[in-house]
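Teaching soon. Got one?

===
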Amino acid sequence: MSIPDPRHDRQSMQIKVFMSLGADKNSRPWHFSPAVVFSMSREPIYAATPATRRIPGEAIMKTERMLKKIMAASGALLALDALWLGVVMKDYYREKLAGLARGDGGAIEPDWTAAALVYVLLITGILAFAARGDGGPAAGRVGRAAARGALFGLVSYGIYDLTNMATLKGWTWSLSATDMAWGAFLCAVSAAAAAAAAK
């Protein structure tokens, strides 16, 4: 009568445990998860699973999607704001900001470095808070981005306008309301454009 080798039984039990965890003992390469499974002999066994392989094209696709979102948001925001400030509301802002804005002879001459940083912050906020990547159908994704963008624009422009209202003597409630409404619309459109571009 042969006596069973306990080491053989323990090895068989380990293989069964690995198979029950979904691991293939012939697959390579292996990596070991921190979870420890104990055999009947109370010796620790590390559950092995095939190493996760990164798909090379995945990082490229994410980068391309982000670049599309940046270009779409930047294009929409800069084009609409240039039209609003330079054409539609040019005389309105010149009248309301007389004596407050930089410039001579009634013409507003902004600090372009500061203006560029404002747009960088707006686009960053739109992409981070409004046009963040979420799943679902395109129509729903664009709608959600537009709603978040409107809220972001209202808050961002509201902080600026209401601070001016609280501290500047010549600032008016009508100017604040107009600017806040425009900020909500501008950021909503920009966020929607970014979400639509991220297909």
